[in-house]
Each structure stands twice: as C-alpha cells, then as structure tokens.
Amino acid sequence: MELADTLASIGESATLGRIFPRLPAAAAQLLGPGDDAAVIAAPDGRFVVTTDMMIHGPDFRLAWSTGHDLGWKAAATNLADVAAMGAVPTALVVAIAAPAHTEVAFLEAIADGLREGCAAMAPGCGVVGGDLSVSATLTIAVTAFGDLEGRAPVTRAGARPGDVVAVSGPLGASATALALLFAEGVHEGEPHRETTDRLRAREGAALAAQLAPTPPIADGPRAALAGATAMIDLSDGLALDARRVAAASGVAIDLDTASAGSREALVGGEDHSLLATFPAGTRLPGGFRAIGVVREGSGVLVGGHLFDALGGWDPYLAWDGQRG
Amino acid sequence: MELADTLASIGESATLGRIFPRLPAAAAQLLGPGDDAAVIAAPDGRFVVTTDMMIHGPDFRLAWSTGHDLGWKAAATNLADVAAMGAVPTALVVAIAAPAHTEVAFLEAIADGLREGCAAMAPGCGVVGGDLSVSATLTIAVTAFGDLEGRAPVTRAGARPGDVVAVSGPLGASATALALLFAEGVHEGEPHRETTDRLRAREGAALAAQLAPTPPIADGPRAALAGATAMIDLSDGLALDARRVAAASGVAIDLDTASAGSREALVGGEDHSLLATFPAGTRLPGGFRAIGVVREGSGVLVGGHLFDALGGWDPYLAWDGQRG
Fold first, then answer.
1. pLDDT in tens, B15-41
2. Is there a single domain that holds both residue A97 and residue A230?
3. Taking CA atoms, what residue in A is nearest to B143?
4. Distance CA A278, CA B52 (A)
C-alpha cells in the first residue's frame, strides 16, 4: 500500500507547489505570490478589508466537512462580509495551519473549494497570497478585499424609519442543516464520517447550506447601486444581526411574521444572506425580497411585537477540542 | 482569591470591548472596526498585502514569550514583509484564536504589544479590524497593508551584477537568543517560565532579538527611494534568503567573510532585517551597510566560495504540540 503524501512527508515548499496551481487568479492582482508581499489594485483609492478564522472544533468538524467544503465556506463567509459593504470582492489572502499528518490531497481540496467558490460567487476574485504552517489545530484564516467602485460603503448605520427591510438568500437553511447533521450525521452521539456520507448522498443540497453555503455576493453591490441605506451579512441569525443594524442606525426593525417569523429564520446563524434596508418604493434588486419595515424606536420586532430571544445555543461550543 | 477573567468567563463580546481601546489607530483608516468590513485608503490606487500566522508550538512557546512579546512580534514580522517591498505600512488586521481558559489580561497584553510595536516601528500604522475565536491552539494571524507612495514595488528579482549587497538590522541575533533560551530558559529540558524570567532580567536586550524583534521598517521605503534593485526580509537566515534573491534575479550573491561569514549570520533565521541590493556607488540609506556584491552566476557565495549549507535545524519543530 502506498502512503498518501502529507504536509510532514513532503514538506512546506513542495506542498505549496501542489496547492498554488489550484488557487484562483485575481484580476486585480498587480504582483502575486512569490515575493514578501503582493500588490493589489485599488482603483478608487480605497479598499474594503475583512478577516475571519475557521477553527477545527468551534467552527467545523472534519467528520462533516470535506476539504472542498472548508475552502468554499472560508471564501463564502469572507466574500459575504465584503459584499455587505456594497463592494465587489477582488482578492483573498489565505493562511492555513494544519497538523503535520494532514494529507496534501486534503489541502489541495481546500484550494479547489476556494477556487470553485470564488468562480461561483465572485468571478475575478482570487487568492493573491498566503501562509502555510504546522499546528495541532486545523485553522483557516482568510482576509478578503473589495472594491467600492467609487461608491460610499453601505454600513449598518444608515437605516431610516419608513425604509423597507429586505433579504437576499436563505433564512434558517444553515441552522436546519446543522440540526440535521447533529441528528443524523452522528454515531453514538459523535459526528461521524460514514454516517454523514450516507446523509450527504440523500440530503446534499440541504447540507450545503451549512457546509458550503452560496451567499448572494453579487447582490451586495446591486443593493448599493439601488440605494441601500444599511446592509449586514447574516452571520449570527436574522434577529441578532437585525438588532445590530437597528442599534447602529438608532431605529427599530419590524419583521413580517409570515416571511421571517420562524424560529430557524430568526435565530439560526451562518446563512450569510444579505440583510439590507432600502428607501420605501425602491425596486428591490437581484434576489432581495421585502421582509419588514424600519420604524422609529429600537430593537427588533416581529409582527409589531418586541422579539428578545436573539440567539440559540451554539452546538459547536460543546466540542471538547480533541475529537473529530 | 479572585479569579482572573478569561475568554470563557466574560465572553467574546466583553473581551473585544477590553481589547479594542488598546489597539493602535491607523491614519489610513476611512471606516474602522464595528461593521462587516473596514475601509482603508490606498492613495496611489494600489496596496501591498502580506499575511503570516504565529502558532503556539512551532512559532513560539508560552514559557518564553509574554503576550506583549507576541503582539510586538506579530506586528514586526508582518511589517517587515511590507517594508521589504519598499512600502510604508498603513494597517493591520489581526485574527486571534485562543483557548477558552486564556486570561483576558493576556489578550490585552497582545494588544499592548501590537500598539507599542506599531508606534515604535511604523508610526501611523494601526489595527483596522480583526476576529476573535476559541481554539485549542493559540494562533495569531496578521495581515498587513502598505502604501507604495507611487513607486514600483521592490521585488526579489531586480538584482544586477555589480550591485552592492547591503543589510539593515542584525544578522544572527535572533538565532543567538533562541540558542540562549534553549540553553538557559529551560528546566529539565523543557521551556520554563521562572527560569526564563531570571534569564530575561539578565539578558533582556539579547532575548528581545528573538522574542520581540525591532526590524528597521522605515529603511524599507528609504531603500526604495535610494534606488534599491531588489529587497527581501530575512526570515529564514541570510544564506537562504540571499539565495532566493539570487534565484529570482538570475545572479550570484557574494557575501563578505568578515561581515556575514559567521554561522549565526548565515543560517540564523527570524532576524527580519532587510537585505537589499543597490547600484554600485549608491550612498546607502538609513542603517544599511555593505556586506557583499552581486556577480554573474547563481547561488550564494561567501568570500568567493559557494555556500551550500542554507539552513539549520529548527528547534521549534521538535515541540510535540501539547507542552508549554
């Protein structure tokens, strides 16, 4: 039996040589990997930047996520933060720390997920640099950049009473998929790969909402062009993230019971859908649909009633740091 | 006895509230922390970007490094990569993943190290965003940005036969300090805090070369202005990094025996000094001193003789992933 190449067996330099050709190119790249730093175009004299780490245990389980899933999701979550400013994503840098025994094929799959995720969600955006290290804990840190194309950034602070509240992308689909994984992707109470593989064959599309989500990145700049007054990426659930917009803008956000009133929609995290507010009468762009209105006041209402339960228990936190 | 606040005991949000006020502000920041992403000025329509992760175990030991050391070094290593392009550092984003039991005071010390390191090495550069996560392994991922001020980036590829080879910053001081830590900062063969504290009281300045280095960041832009043809940050030792410049430029680099011929200088890593080449006759800027010449050929020579031993054993790699 031939042993699979690992990070330890072929070394950092050879591993990078296997990963680099799989990474997506960035149209904005002026000078790419291979020097001390890269140089990226910022045509309007500014750039948008966000960073997010994914940690084995709190953020994902290797029994559930493939390398491809992890690369795709690392792209998706960061691209959504760029899009939520109304910017077009231009480039990523990716730092990966992995145990020495990690198979190179797994790291190649992460690169494939980054490439295919960028191609699907933000064509032209690519990886312009990175870092590969050894760690006891698999960690993927992505920093993403975007171009505002001369527009003002769309912050969380601009919502005004009378604005329409709209969302693009699913509400609660990621939490529903996570519940399915905890119910059926386990064996004797633990996340389990073979069980998950069978579940994936049956429910792949549903699971993708959690494992490899596809937030509507292009709708970020579309919302900005349509005059969005505030925008946020739904990382922590509609109720909590809408409350952030309400607090930053000094308003209340009143959500429709019918379109946003389910428990999964309100408190389910990690959809990375875009929540935006638009002046009344705006023709909503892309996949945006109205789910409420902005009112004077504070906090989040559902059907006119104050909604206080903002988030659920995060089942990832129960992980003890040593298991799969 | 009052228990110290930890990441787990006060939570992510309160911890961020303690860290944020200690972080350095960036003059280039147009929109800072608190939204989905930050917006940074890029006055000449481009920005330089580099990313580097520090991992507990392979990159540092908690028995040797204080939180302040780690913040300072995380800034220093990334600022040096920006400076090596000839750019002025403008901003950092910092993602930290730490065990749940990590004391908030330790994370505050990291922030203090970032702030004081930026103030000392790159005034005006600040932290514009970040991410805080829980992980079994303490991990600090920094992405740094720089402004080329309209100049072309100084890459590794421009050295020409006849150029002077020069360095700014120490050669081998970091490796010497690491050897001292392995010799005297241990107890029964293991890195040990109390032993190290006594060593630090006696040899603090020497140890700082490894634990909290101060590379000559301002000399990066100075070198570019003086016409540097190639530049690199000395991460992996003079011999290996000079070989990278030689390979990228298609030349040989011949180092003086007297100024660069010691084993520590040649193979000791992590000085983060700047190695640059300048046209013959250039008045060397800042702290640069001549240590050799560029010749036709390939590889690294010392006193005219090919030097093949490029790097030493990395003692950090002997760490087993579980110890201090």
1. 999 999 999 999 999 999 889 999 999
2. no
3. A143
4. 39
